Structure formats: C-alpha cells, structure tokens
Amino acid sequence: MDHLSVMSIRVDHRTDSAPRMQEILTKNGDLILGRFGIHDPDEVNHGLITLNLRSDMARIQNMMDELNGLEGVKVNHMQA
C-alpha cells in the first residue's frame, strides 16, 4: 500500500555528496511528488532538502538506506 510521507535530507559538505545523492533521487523520482531544497546562507556547504513522497514503505526505506550510506548525509522520515 502506498503512503504519503515527508523526508528531510541534511547534506553536509554538499559539494562532495551532491552528485551521488542526486543519482539516488533521480533513480527514485517516481516516488517524489515534490522537492524543496535550500542551503544554509551562513554555511555554504550545508543544505536541506525536503521531499513529499508517495510509495510503499519498502521502497522508501531502500532509498533512505542508500542516502544514509553517503558520507555527510542524514535522513529523517515522517509518515502522514
């Protein structure tokens, strides 16, 4: 069963992590209903991405595991 949920991704050292993170997000693009990203204006190398998702929890968990496996990336998830 598909669930609506929200995922936040904090990226430290985004210049190092961004290309691989973008590959993961693109691969899972069919889960993503909306995406909003900002960087910390005081810390150029830090950013926050918020995703609105619709999918089953197994696919969401798989994407979270891949993202959490990247250095400098921390993921939080909240199911609606």
Automatic annotation (TrEMBL):
Domain of life assignment: Bacteria
Query: Which InterPro entries does the UniProt record give?
Result: Acetolactate_synth/TF_NikR_C (IPR027271), ACT-like_dom_sf (IPR045865), FeFe-hyd_TM1266 (IPR023860)
**Cross-referenced Pfam families, in alphabetical order?**
TM1266-like
SUPFAM superfamilies (alphabetical): ACT-like
Q: Which Gene3D superfamilies match?
A: ACT-like. Chain A, domain 2
Q: What name does UniProt use for this protein?
A: Iron-only hydrogenase system regulator
Query: Which species does this protein come from?
Result: Crassaminicella thermophila
